[in-house]
Specification:
Helix content: 25-40%
Distance between the termini: 38 Å
Structural class: alpha/beta
CATH class of the largest domain: Alpha Beta
Radius of gyration: 18 Å
CATH topology of the largest domain: Chitobiase, domain 2
Number of strands: 8
CATH superfamily of the largest domain: Chitobiase/beta-hexosaminidase domain 2-like
Largest sheet: 6 strands, mixed
Length: 185
């Protein structure tokens, strides 16, 4: 079973910490254990596949790739080469969306290869194929209105919004929720 190590430049703010959390949870389904997390400069266990995440400004491994700079808000780049994964964000939200799309655009196509011999395979049983993808949102505000529907678990609701790369929620009820400040936080 392939083991992963997430290497981050700095986990400043809640958005970068959320990116590490989302990436860890997505990998857990395949590896049955959480990946270990290391700050740049710490020693990664031998045999672990590193996943370097951050911005070019805060992670020297990403800066060393010498890619063209990401210039738009929420833009991100995913690269896989030589059994290493790099997720670069132009900003913290771009990094978060890059972590989500590592799963959507890289791991899922490996798991479901669209051939007639095998319908589902372990995406990490073979060496990781090289890959490069850059994206940014074409719409600035992407969200959902609740239209008076009750949301019993706002944390789970907002976590699902992250996985869908939505960034705006409008809670449209007769009365403001009693825990409105908790939702904003």
């Amino acid at each position: 079973m392939k083991k992963f190590s997430i290497v981050y430049g700095c986990a400043r703010g809640s958005v970068q910490r959320k990116a590490i959390e989302v990436l860890s949870e997505l990998l857990l389904d395949y590896t049955h254990s959480y990946p270990s997390c290391y700050k740049v400069g710490e020693v990664i266990p031998e045999g672990n596949t590193p996943i370097y995440i951050g911005t070019a400004a805060d992670n020297p491994y990403i800066a060393a790739l010498n890619n063209p700079p990401l210039t738009c808000s929420e833009e991100y780049r995913i690269q896989v080469k030589e059994e290493r994964i790099y997720i670069e964000g132009a900003d913290d939200r771009g990094l978060l969306y890059g972590c989500v799309d590592l799963f959507n655009r890289y791991i899922l196509p490996l798991e479901y290869p669209h051939n007639t011999v095998t319908y589902v395979v372990d995406p990490f049983e073979k060496p990781l194929p090289d890959y490069s993808f850059t994206s940014r949102p074409s719409v600035k505000n992407r969200g959902i209105w609740t239209w008076g529907h009750v949301i019993y678990d706002y944390k789970a609701f907002l976590d699902n919004m992250v996985k869908l790369k939505l960034n705006t929620v409008t809670i449209w009820n007769e009365y403001a929720p009693l825990n409105a400040q908790d939702i904003v936080d």
